[in-house]
Predict the 3D structure of the following.
Amino acid sequence: MIIVLDCGSQYNQNIARRVRENRVFTEIRPYTTPVGELRRPDLEGIIISGGPWSVYDEGSPLYPKKVFDIGVPVLGICYGMQSMAYLLGGKDAVEPAEGRREYGPMEVIITSGTDSIFKGIAKGSIQTWMSHGDVVKGMPDGFKVAATSGTGHLSAMIDPHRRLYAVQFHPEVDNTEHGRDILANFVDICGCARDWTSGNFIEEKIREVRERVGDAHAIGGISGGVDSTTASTLMHKALGSRYHPILVDNGVLRKGEAREVLGYLGRHFPKMDVAYVDAGELFLARLAGVTDPEEKRKIIGGTFIEVFEREARRIGMEVPIRYLMQGTLYPDVIESVPAYGGPQDTIKSHHNVGGLPERMDLELIEPFRELFKDEVREVAKELGIPKEIYGRHPFPGPGLAIRIIGEVTPEKVAILQEADRRFITAIREHGHYDRIWQALTVLTDSKSVGVMGDARTHEYAAVLRAVTSRDGMTADVYEFPPRFLRDVTVDIVNSVRGINRVTYDCTPKPPGTIEWE
Ligand code: XMP
């Protein structure tokens, strides 16, 4: 296995994911992890992540220098390279890149290392992604230059004897040419067997859940989506009837969804006893008058927990419930919580992360907190979950509430449900569903003037959105064939009372996000 030492980079989960793509088990551990804990018999390599600091900042994440004496290969990335140079070379090793800081796409010229970290990549120029203000000026003894940037800064250094490697750019980011190859080369240098699979992941998680829960019971939300259904299946495998999945209708699900989901869960998982709680009125009452997106998310997150705690107490009359399982994924985490001390803003408080109340009676279990959606789909397949479920588009926990701009009312929910049903049905009928990452309809709070029959109308404008994506972190607009959008628009405007205009959202992510709120 390879350990990623987390120095606060927003990309550290990408590093872990790239390593996992090579079928090697990876764990992200804080930079403060004692060296004694890192010296485990199964450790084959260490990657030191980037981070938003300078090594000279007070409190910058400096791990023990003994990390380099463990005897396994080490790869430093960005701040990881600077801290490696600083710890091994002394305090003049790193300097601010006065006037020539490197952010964004940057050319790097590879001069050596094509027999190790740059194997399979020709000497010469590649495009990379950089994000740093400091540069390495003095390499520690034993290192040689492996690459320099177009700006003239050191971009990669290697000590082949101690098997220490460092790059100033981010190989874990898609914008770096050959980034995957560089990480795959490191995996080879570490001598990893490449035999870790989603099957191993399932076994490990089941063991972990059993150890943690002991004789207690757990409840969990199940929405019928990929994440919560897969996580519930795993929990059911681990705990059997001591796991109690609950489907909460929060009043902002898609049209007929609760019934449909209960139907297919019953068909596919007859042994899992799914409880159904209709809390629609409670959620909608809490949302009344609220227009701020973050507030909506927090209200929904808090109300979910309240409902779960109530259910836990109800079931708990007979058995002790201590744990709540949620199908949180890594992108929910990264967009909800600024890296510790880091410069990023919270983008959205995904309801099951940033939307949680501060005090909770139940302890959280989040088996997929480190995974991306496509990795969860792999786990789902391995668990024998049918495509009908793992192939579903993502649907956010706060549901249609974050697709209704402005106040959420039962009338607006009904309007949006009907428009969305028509859009999604057309997408399925025309064979687009599996090519799209996510399709959705937004009900704006703007009304536009139209004419129907001979009468003037003044109704809401709705927005259709369909995107392709790998993991939801970035997204591109899906290009429908010419008549498709026109036909869906006419269908919605003619059939859905309350909408008289439909537009298509062509914004990629970034700069947009997938959901409107
Ligand atoms: P954004 O809008 O941030 O969405 O580009 C990225 C992906 O995350 C989903 N999403 C959520 N999922 N709880 C969830 O479970 C949430 O609060 C939440 N907010 C956004 C979104 O649908 C997209 O797939």
In short: The CA atoms of residues 246 and 275 lie 5 Å apart. Residues 297, 331-332, 335, 348, 350-352, 394, 396-398, 438, 472, 509, 513-515 surround xanthosine-5'-monophosphate (CB under 6 Å). The radius of gyration is 25 Å. Confidence is low (pLDDT under 50) at residues 339-344.
